[in-house]
Amino acid sequence: MVTGMIGFMAWRMSPFSVHRNNSRTAAAAPAKPTARRIFSAPLTDADVGRVRALPAQAQAEELLERAIGHDPGALDLFDQQVGGWIGHIQMSDRMKQLEQRSRFSKDLRVRYANVDINLALEGWQKNKQTADLLIERGSTDPRYRASAVYYLGMLAGRGVDYERIHGVLLNYARYDQDATVRRWAVEGMRFLREETVLDELFTSFTEDPAPSVRDRAGCNISDCGIFTRQQRMRMVPKLLDLAMNPRTTGQMRSWTFLTLQEITDETLSADAIIWSRWYQEHGSERMAEFERLEWWQVRGDE
After folding, report:
1. CA neighbours within 13 Å on the CB side: how many for 22?
2. 11: which of 44, 147, 171, 281 lies 20 to 30 Å off by Cα?
3. How far is it, in rounded angstroms, from Cα 145 to Cα 150?
4. Exposure pattern of 118-154 as b/e (b: 16+ CB <10 Å)?
5. Mind listing the domains of the chain with CATH numbers?
6. Listed residue (206, 165, 210) closest to 183, CA to CA
7. Largest Cα–Cα distance of the chain, in whole Å?
8. Is 259 helix (H, G, I), strand (E, B) or coil?
9. Which DSSP state fits 189?
10. Which own/partner pairs from 171-180 qualify as long-range (CB within 8 Å, at least 24 positions apart)?
11. What are residue 275's DSSP bridge partners?
12. 3-state secondary structure string, 159-177?
C-alpha cells in the first residue's frame, strides 16, 4: 500500500529536464488512453439533477472534467459534492488523466479542485483531525512520512491548521535527513499560497544538498502549485542575483533561467546580463500585466 502510494506520487512529479521540452505532462507514466469528453455547453439545472443521481465515481469524473474546461457551475457543484465522495472513488484510468490535467491547469480554481480530489481519493477529510493524524503518522511511520507531508500541504492550502502545518513542513524541508522526505515537504509547500513560502522554497532551491530537492523547489517557484503570477514575479530579483553570481553552478544556472522563463513568459537567451536588462526595462510592465489578471489566472496547459 505504501509502496504503491509512493510510486503514484513519483508519477505526479515532472522535473526541470522535462520543462526543457516544454512538456511537463510528458514526464508522467501514461494512463491507459481515455477519450476526452467535449461538453457542448456549461452545466445546466437539468444537468445538476442528472449528475447528482450518478454514482460517486461518475459524478467526480464528469464534474472534474467540466471544471478543467472552466465551467463555473461545475466548479461550484464539485465543491458541494467532493466531501461525499470520500471512500467511494478510486484512481481509474480516466481519473488519473483528469488528475494530471487539473494539476497543470491555467486556472487556480481548477488546481484547488485537484487538491480536493487528491484528498478525497486518499480518504482524508479537510479538518483538524486529519491534520493531527497526518502529523502523528509522519512522525511515527517513516515509510509514510513523504506521503504525510505532501497531504499536509494540501490540507493547509485548503485552510486547515495553516500555521501549524506550515511549521511542520518547513522543519521537514530543512532538517530531515532523508532527501525523499525533504523533496515531498517541498512539494507540499507548493500548496501553501503565501508569498513568504516562495522565499522558503528559494532557500531549498539554492541550499539543499540534494539535486532532486532543488529541482522540485525550482519547479514549484516557477509554475507548479497555487501561487499567483504576481507572487512568482516578485521572485525575479532573487533569481537574477543567482544567475549573476559567479559561484552558481552550471546546473543551477540552467534551472534559474528556466524558472525566469516560466515566471515571466519571456524566452530570452541564458545570459544574466540580458535578463537583468529586460527586467530593468520591462519588469514593472510585466508585473502590471499580471496584476490585471483575474486572481485565478496562471500559467498552465489548459
Report:
1. 6
2. 171
3. 9
4. bbbbbebebeeebbeebbebbeeeeebbbbbbbbbbb
5. 31-122 (no CATH), 125-226 (1.25.10.10), 228-302 (no CATH)
6. 210
7. 63
8. helix
9. H
10. 172/138, 172/145, 173/200, 173/204, 173/213, 174/203, 174/204, 176/145, 178/142, 178/145, 178/146, 179/208, 179/209, 179/210, 179/212, 179/213, 180/146, 180/212
11. none
12. CCCHHHHHHHHHHHHHHCC
CA distances from 61 to 5, 50, 298 (A): 21, 14, 23
C-alpha distances (whole Å) from 102 to each of 115, 241, 300 are: 9, 33, 10
- Whole-angstrom CA distances from 26 to 30, 31, 262 are 8, 12, 17
Distance in angstroms (rounded) separating the CA atoms of residues 295 and 60: 25
- Torsion from C-alpha of 193, 198, 204, 205, nearest 10 degrees: 120
Q: Which residue has the cell 515532472?
A: 14
Query: Per residue of the chain (302 residues), what is the pLDDT tens digit?
Result: 444 444 445 445 545 544 433 333 334 455 577 788 878 789 999 999 999 999 999 999 999 999 999 999 999 999 999 999 999 999 999 999 999 999 999 999 999 999 999 999 999 999 999 999 999 999 999 999 999 999 999 999 999 999 999 999 999 999 999 999 999 999 999 999 999 999 999 999 999 999 999 999 999 999 999 999 999 999 999 999 999 999 999 999 999 999 999 999 999 999 999 999 999 999 999 999 999 999 999 999 99
Angle at 249 between CA 245 and CA 255, to 5 degrees: 90
- Rounded Cα distance between 265 and 110, Å, is 21
The grid coordinates of residue 63 equal 464534474
Residue written as grid cell 478543467:
68
State how far the Cα of 71 lies from the Cα of 62, in Å rounded to an integer.
11
Cβ–Cβ under 8 Å, residues 228 and 108: yes
One-letter amino acid at 288 equals A
> Alpha-carbon distance 301 to 106, whole Å?
6
In the chain the first and final C-alpha atoms are separated, in Å, by: 32
Are residues 108 and 129 in contact, defined by beta-carbon separation less than 8 angstroms? no
